[in-house]
Every structure is written in structure tokens, then in C-alpha cells.
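In this section we walk through a basic example: taking a raw amino acid sequence and producing a predicted 3D structure, encoded as C-alpha cells. The instruction is simple. Fold the sequence below.
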Amino acid sequence: MNRARLAGVYTITDAALTPAERLEQQVEAVLRGGCRIVQYRDKSPDATRRLHEARALRALCEAFGALLLINDDVELAATSGAHGVHLGQQDRPLAAARERLGPTAVIGITCHASLELGRAAEAGGADYVAFGALFPSPTKPAASRASLDLIREARQTLSVPICAIGGIDADNAAEVIAAGADMLAVISGVFARPDPETATSALHRRFESR
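The resulting C-alpha cell sequence is shown next.
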């Protein structure tokens, strides 16, 4: 089942850090470094380019045995053959996404710093929940802050996999994993580094040494 694969380094593409001309190269680098889940995040209106890129990333992820999720866009997830979608609180309702994508699709839900949102997502059939930002994030400096205590409480309360996001890097990853996170979602922690493969590998090793 896809849910059993929801663990490890989870990278999120970024229009500034992974522009179109370097997107596949950058994603291949993090996959070589041990990334297990890639979220394609692109808010541009160019639907043709986005479909082309999503299909290319799906092929890359499958070559490495990883999952490709699409940020927010359920229709793009369906047409590109991605493994699922990640939804924010203001996006398409979980039930509608499940109806469109089917029972085997991975659907993750942003829960910010709210355990109640996590409980609601689990009850609604989400495959994983995401909490953050755990630390100051250069990508989203105004994001609400979540605590390691929230991750610990979620681990004790929820049965679905837990994703932590926000300012995570190799220096603080171990404490987030120890608190109970199954996945570490990173953007600048790998894509803003001179060598994304090495940065991903450093994160990947934190899971192996727990």
C-alpha cells in the first residue's frame, strides 16, 4: 500500500529554487540522495507546462521507487498519473479529492499547528497529516509555528503517518524524528544548498540512525 511508503525525506519543489530549466535535474539529485516522496508545487497558470513537468517527475520518481504528490491540484494529479495530492485547509475537500483520485491515491492534509485538524483529517480518510512550521522557514517566514510537543502528542493520538515541515535540516532533523515524525518535508533545506543530493543524503541518514 502507498501508505506504508510514507516515511523518510519528503522534498517540495519551488518555482524559485527549482525553475523549469533545472527541475528534473534537481529532483533527480534529491532522489539519488534518498528522497522517498516528492511534492510538485507550481502555482503558475501554464497548465500545459505543469502537466509535462508532472509527468516527467512521475517517471523519475517511479524509477527511484519514490512517490510523486501534487500540491493542491487534484485534476493535475489525476491527469499526470501522480501517486496522490497534498491539500491545504482551503483547497478542494478531502472527500471530493478521494472520489476523483480513487481509494489507492495518497492524500495528505496540512494541519498547521492544530491537533484537532489532524484528528479531523484522519477521520476523513487522509493518508497522512502535516504539521508545521517547526522552525523558522525561509520559504514561508510568516507560517504559523508548531512545536515538537505537538508532534509528540500527535504521535500518541493519531494512527496515520505524520509529516513535519518548516526550517528542517540535518542539524535539527534528529529531534524531529525522535518526537515522532515519519516524514521530514524540506524545500530550502535541500534545494537551496549547493549540492541537493548531499543535503538529502544527510537527512536520509538521520532516519537510518534513529
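Looking at the output, two observations stand out. The CA atoms of residues 30 and 69 lie 15 Å apart. The domain at 2-208 is CATH 3.20.20.70 (TIM Barrel). In the next section we compare this with other chains.
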